[in-house]
């Protein structure tokens, strides 16, 4: 596919899948691509639909089979699912069984007391809405997007189990659960014969909280693990090496990356990491993705993209996944100084 050309012909399946590496998800028979495409940003109603379409087509043509949604992705909330459903209908007739499509519920989605927690009421309404928006008969994976701190874990997990038994999802997962609640979830799913396929958490060189308990716990229960925000909202790219550029996420008054998070320590660490990446023949972003994938417990990383070219650059991480002991030791020293 020509990145600047709207015309598109799908590559033969053998070519498509030879471009990607796949890994079994925990103790399951399901393989996921090492790099998955997330629709958190850039696929909503405020975004360019043609660009979004081109990115999904290109991703699929490069062997990315897993597309990660949530009911509240947009903006406006719900519009990423609606757009994705339209893209599927217009471009992927006959390819559904070659795709893993996931969605989630649990964050604020609609007004009132039932639109943004982890109750049975919210999850059941949410998956029905998400199926309608996407036009799908089922999701391959459906997650509880968060532990809300109020709803008993047992209520949330029983709902996920019922969703599988009702045929609305093939597999279930959890996202951002504290270890104590995650253990309860894993135990309950296992006893019900619907084990937790996958656990989704924030993980990057700049956010390693999951290494202490979350990653080992997922592995203990045979759950796969998928990392979101692997580039720390752009901090682990060359974008912020010289400060905060105009038009970047951190330059905006609202958003998930605030100016206060772009600290001098992180900028300096990114510069030093960038030098290691350069010596490895990679960009900083490519190395940051490879660094997460080096852990055998990690199944996949979710990347976001605003263009086909950006997605193509991220996929280059797969060309150099190995690290020397010296590389790893130097990276650890840089990250330790940042703390």
TrEMBL record:
SUPFAM superfamilies: NAD(P)-linked oxidoreductase. It is an enzyme of class 1 (oxidoreductase). Keywords: NADP, Oxidoreductase. This is L-glyceraldehyde 3-phosphate reductase. The gene is gpr. It holds the Pfam family Aldo_ket_red. One of its GO terms (molecular function) is oxidoreductase activity. InterPro entries: K_chnl_volt-dep_bsu_KCNAB-rel, NAD(P)_OxRdtase_dom_sf, NADP_OxRdtase_dom. Belongs to the shaker potassium channel beta subunit family. Residues 35-335 form the NADP-dependent oxidoreductase domain. One of its GO terms (biological process) is methylglyoxal catabolic process. Its EC number is 1.1.1.-.
């Amino acid at each position: 596919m020509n990145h600047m050309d709207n015309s598109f012909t799908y590559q033969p399946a053998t070519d498509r899948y030879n471009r990607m590496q796949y890994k079994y998800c925990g103790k399951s028979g399901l393989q996921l691509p090492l790099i998955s495409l997330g629709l958190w940003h850039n696929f909503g109603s405020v975004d360019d639909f043609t660009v979004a379409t081109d990115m999904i087509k290109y991703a699929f043509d490069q062997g990315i089979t897993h597309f990660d949604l949530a009911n509240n992705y947009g903006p406006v909330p719900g519009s990423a699912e609606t757009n994705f459903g339209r893209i599927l209908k217009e471009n992927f007739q006959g390819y559904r069984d070659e795709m893993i499509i996931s969605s989630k519920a649990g964050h604020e989605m609609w007004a009132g007391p039932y639109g943004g927690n982890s109750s049975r009421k919210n999850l059941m309404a949410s998956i029905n809405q998400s199926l309608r928006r996407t036009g799908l008969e089922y999701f391959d994976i459906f997650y509880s997007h968060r532990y809300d701190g109020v709803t008993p874990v047992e209520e949330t997990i029983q709902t996920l189990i019922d969703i599988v038994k009702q045929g609305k999802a093939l597999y279930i997962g959890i996202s951002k659960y504290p270890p104590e609640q995650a253990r309860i979830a894993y135990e309950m799913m296992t006893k019900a014969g619907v084990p937790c396929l996958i656990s989704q958490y924030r993980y990057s060189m700049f956010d390693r909280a999951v290494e202490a308990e979350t990653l080992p716990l997922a592995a203990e229960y045979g759950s796969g693990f998928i990392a979101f925000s692997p580039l720390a909202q752009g901090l682990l790219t060359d974008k912020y090496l010289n400060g905060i550029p105009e038009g970047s996420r951190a330059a905006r008054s609202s958003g998930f990356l605030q100016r206060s998070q772009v600290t001098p320590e992180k900028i300096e660490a990114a510069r030093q990491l960038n030098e290691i990446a350069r010596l490895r023949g990679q960009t900083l972003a490519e190395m940051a993705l490879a660094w997460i994938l080096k852990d055998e417990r990690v199944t996949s990383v979710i990347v976001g993209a605003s263009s086909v070219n950006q997605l193509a650059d991220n996929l280059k991480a797969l060309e150099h996944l190995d690290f020397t002991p010296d590389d790893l030791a130097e990276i650890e020293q840089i990250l330790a100084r940042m703390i």
